[in-house]
Amino acid sequence: MKYNPNEIEAKWQKYWAENQTFAAVNNSEKPKHYVLDMFPYPSGAGLHVGHPLGYIASDVYARYKRHQGFNVLHPMGYDSFGLPAEQYAIQTGQRPEDTTSVNIDGGFDKEGNKIAGYRKQLDKIGFSFDWAREVRTSNPDYYKHTQWIFIQLFNSWYNKDNDKAEDISTLVALFEVNGNAAVNAVCDDKIAPFTSSEWNAYAKEQQQKILLQYRLTYLAETEVNWCPGLGTVLANDEIVNGVSERGGFTVVRKKMTQWSMRISAYAERLLQGLNDIDWSESIKESQRNWIGKSVGAMVSFKVKSESSEVNGEQHYIDVFTTRPDTIFGVTFMTLAPEHELVAQITTPEQKAAVEAYIEKTAKRSERERMADVKTISGVFTGAYAEHPFTKEAIPVWIGDYVLAGYGTGAVMAVPCGDERDYAFANFFKGHPEASGGMPEIKNIFDKDISEAAFGAKEGFQIVNSDFLNGMGYKEGTKKAIAELEALGQGKGKINYRLRDAVFSRQRYWGEPFPVYYVNGLPQMIDAQYLPIILPEVEKYLPTEDGLPPLGNAEVWAWDTAKNEVVNTDLVDHKTIFPLELNTMPGWAGSSFYWMRYMDPQNENEFASKEALAYWESVDLYIGGNEHATGHLLYSRFWNKFLKDKGFAPTEEPFKKLINQGMILGTSAISYQLMCTDNLTIFVSKEVIDKGEDYTKSKINEYYKNRNLSIPELIKISISFSPIHADVSMVNSSDELDTERFKAWREYYKDADFICDDNGKYIVGREVEKMSKSKYNVVTPDDICNEYGADTLRLYEMFLGPLEQAKPWNTAGISGVFGFLKKLCRLYFDEHNLIVTDEVPTKDNLKTLHKTIKKVADDIENFSFNTSVSQFMICVNELSTQGCHSRAILEPLAIVISPYAPHIAEELWSLLGHEGSIATVPFPVFEPKHLIESSKEYPVSFNGKMRFTIELPLDLTKDQIEEIIMKDERTIKQLEGRTPNKVIIVPGKIINLVG
Q: Which Pfam families does this one have (predicted)?
């Protein structure tokens, strides 16, 4: 019999599908265990070998838990809405739903290229997914529930007294009885107070406008990252170095009316919840920093500019500070360039400079501004604010290091206690652009600040600060807040950096909002009429007048009489109204998908109470750490909201989180000679590595052999342009197939190669991110076709610790494949099964139970790479022992099954068993087989070891001495002498002295 992985794996993958081997049930006597992967976005590029790493790890764990007797839910689906599919549709003229479907199920693209399809690729690797529970976020039967959750958010407010979300009707009831004076809610700032009688007298439209200021999802004018090239708003994590991650287009800051989610209401709960979950400290710290809790005070500074009073209204600059004790050190103030007061308080003399600076700042993303701590820039507005205690005039600046969305968009600058303020003040002191708006730094510490700011919170006394003199940080903070409250210009406050999440996208390929507009006010479509399905459009670009792509739809209006979507031309603003033109962001569908897996066929609700109560939450979640402050934060927010509303059974969605490291590609680099002629010349890395003189000689030789003049540029200096070559054109010796390379691209067809002395062109190697653009992608399909999925699974686990990045090296695959063939040889030879019923030896049992313990411990500790090492040790030992005992090999097949399930199934079947190995109980480790009953002692004479002897460990010193003295080898060594001393340490040494 021969190990044929392709035949074996196809057989068992078919068996699993036909028998629904991995189907989970929603009610079982077995204990439950929910193992989840972050589901993929299905791009046309398909999977490379880096993608399955986390999936293989979770699959090993899920299979192990089934062996342990758990009812395991291990589902898979697709995060199938998103900008890439839309951009591809724009470029190729295809429907995004069609390209997305092909990317998942396989088929052909518009150019006729065959797309393998994610599903076929995943099946080929042998994952134990319950495919009956598959979800796709772009399917109407899925996003129907996304739309329903949006409606629940719209119809809710956050009651700070109860610290939870409540139905909006409870807020209306409070307004009707008491107005809003006593309402303790998370809401917009500066809501005008009203009484119950005023509320009851308001027109319905006015009441709706007020309620929008309290709802958990609301419309507001917001500073966003606008990308004109893509025609949409981008999230911070979709921007790299100030341009869009997709396409590299310019991104600017722009004010737009957007839907937002009031995630800030959950800031404290999101922070405290981190204490209750088993996540890595680095991910927790990322979320803590993103939430950014600060304890301090809110201070109001009166604006003194002549233009600060409009219609008699006095303007104030509100500042949140964590150091109210430094209030007397305020030297200047800085507003975000986007701050709403800037235009109102800027003096005519400074208007041009301020407007120019604002325009310049709009081209930088928030992330870029936050990261740039070295550049100092700003403009004086010409306006002043009044110090609350001294009444001194404080100059007001704008600077791009202050962000409108963080805090109040304003800072009180205390240069003596803050390095950034210190650098800003010193940079502009006496600077022509300061226009006299940068006074001397005020020092309020009994410390020298001539060289740097003093930022410590201890080890100082406050000076030059009136009633705060002589105090420290804690006492000074408390006193400053009390005095500010007495003045009516401040109060103690806890602040969070976490901002409400913009929820609108000017895209087509996303969830439609279940919203229509009456007189400009949003109305929710009744849940019974969901889903509101994406309409057909001719093009996926914004309209000519700048509306989102849905503005191109001919059928996109809501008929309130028929309760259906109708032709846009029928809008009469009486019974037929316009629908929302924006769509939801990519994170909408991924913020509750783990609950949909619990009950995916339920048409009426996203999951039944029974299913939610049974599965509760995810026991193990595996995915990339790039989602730390995106998906993982938003999903926790939605889970907490659904818990408040009585749907989600737990406060946190994911009990344990593991972030798998990245598998890096080994790129192949060819070196193009930079010269002034029209030749395309590549020089071997082997040549370059021998030094400049040798390289010059080889280049001179090349030109001489062709009777060509050497370009002047090369005579002066030799330089190369590194060009990525497709790794498939390079062999294991790093030799490039130059003919394939020339045929690869039209512009390389006439290329020449300066090779090494053996006539070979050797490429350079560079370990970097595996990606299509670097031509270093290795597909799992190729590995599976040549070596089998079990080899791929074992090799990926063997590469190194799950959470670390590691380079891919295809050369190592053959060793793992050889191991599997060696494993098979324990069970069958070229002709027949060779397993016997012989009683296992002590060594056989020791090897098996050592492996059972090691593998079980490793899986529980997610140390998968060391399990693979133990399998290799085990098979080597059993081979050396000549073991073919059924009592050893049956449990061994079970132990290896989570890692190499196909060969395990085949061996189990060959051993005469019916059905799948998948739920056979995991072997029980028996410690007795690892307890040593004897010891091989080194026997020494005067400290020099002469021979060894194996003796039972339970012998006494006297018994050991008696045996040693009667041994023929001892008698020969002593030659009739009697030793002066016999040193015996039971279990360790025997030494005869003299």
A: Anticodon_1, tRNA-synt_1, tRNA-synt_1_2
Per the DSSP assignment, residues forming a β-bridge with 937 are: 949
Indicate the pLDDT class of residue 311, thresholds 50, 70 and 90.
very low
Q: Give helix 83-92 / helix 96-105 axis angle, nearest 10°.
A: 110
Q: Given pLDDT bands bounded at 50, 70 and 90, which one contains residue 698?
A: very high
Note the residue count of the chain: 994
Most confident of 341-345, 636-640, 729-733: 636-640
Other CB atoms closer than 10 Å to residue 544's CB: what's the count? 8
What span, in angstroms and rounded, lies between the C-alpha atoms of 400 and 336?
6
Closest to 504 measured CA to CA, from 710, 257, 297: 257
Q: Is the Cβ–Cβ distance between 990 and 937 less than 8 Å?
A: yes
Query: CA–CA separation, 644 vs 814, rounded Å?
Result: 54
Question: Which class is 293-496 in CATH?
Answer: alpha beta
Half-sphere exposure of 47 (CA within 13 A, CB side): 26
Which pLDDT score, from 0 to 100, does residue 84 have?
Answer: 84
Q: Annotated binding site for ATP, which residues?
A: 772
Encoding tokens for residue 660?
């798998």
Answer CATH for 11-137+588-659 from 1.25.40.10, 1.10.101.10, 3.40.50.720, 3.40.50.620: 3.40.50.620
Q: For residue 780, what are its two tokens?
A: 């799992």
**Pairing mode, strands 252-261 and 217-227:** antiparallel
480-501 pLDDT per residue, tens: 999 999 999 999 999 998 999 9
Q: Is the pLDDT of residue 245 over 90?
A: no
Contacts for 401 with CB less than 8 Å, ≥ 6 apart? 334, 369, 372, 373, 420, 424
Is the torsion defined by CA of 76, 79, 85, 87 positive or negative?
negative
Longest dimension (CA), the chain: 122
Above 70 in pLDDT, residue 306?
no
Backbone angles phi, psi at 454, to 5 degrees: -110, 105
For the chain, the structural domain boundaries read 11-137+588-659, 148-265+501-584, 293-496, 664-774, 809-929, 934-993
CB-CB neighbours of 296 under 10 Å = 20
Could you report the per-residue pLDDT of 416-434, keeping only the tens digit for each? 999 999 999 999 987 777 7
3-class DSSP assignment, residue 4: coil
Q: Is 95 exposed, middle or buried (0-12, 13-18, 19+ CB in 10 A)?
A: middle
Cβ neighbours around 156 below 10 Å, total: 25
Question: Where does the pLDDT of residue 644 fall: very low under 50, low under 70, confident under 90, or very high at 90 and above?
Answer: very high
798 has a pLDDT exceeding 50: yes
SS (H, E, C) 186-229: ECCCCCCCCCHHHHHHCCHHHHHHHHHCCECEEEEEEEEEEECC
The reported pLDDT for the residue numbered 237 is 67
**Do 637 and 591 touch, CB atoms closer than 8 A?**
yes
- Token digits of residue 525: 């479509």
809-929: CATH architecture: Orthogonal Bundle (1.10)
Architecture of domain 934-993: Roll (3.10)
Burial of 39 (0-12, 13-18, 19+ CB in 10 A): buried
What is the residue-wise DSSP string for 323-373?
-GGGGGG--EEEE-TT-TTHHHH--GGGHHHHHHHHHHHTTS-HHHHHH--
pLDDT at 630: 92
**Which amino acid, residue 567?**
N
Query: What is the radius of gyration, based on Cα positions, of the chain?
Result: 36
CB-CB neighbours of 190 under 10 Å: 7
Provide the pLDDT for residue 535.
97
Cα distance between residue 312 and residue 307, in whole Å: 11
CA-wise closest residue to 32 among 655, 593, 637? 655
The residue type of 422 is: Y
Q: Cα torsion at 59, 60, 62, 64 (round to 10°)? A: 160
Phi, psi of 116 (to 5 degrees): -60, -40
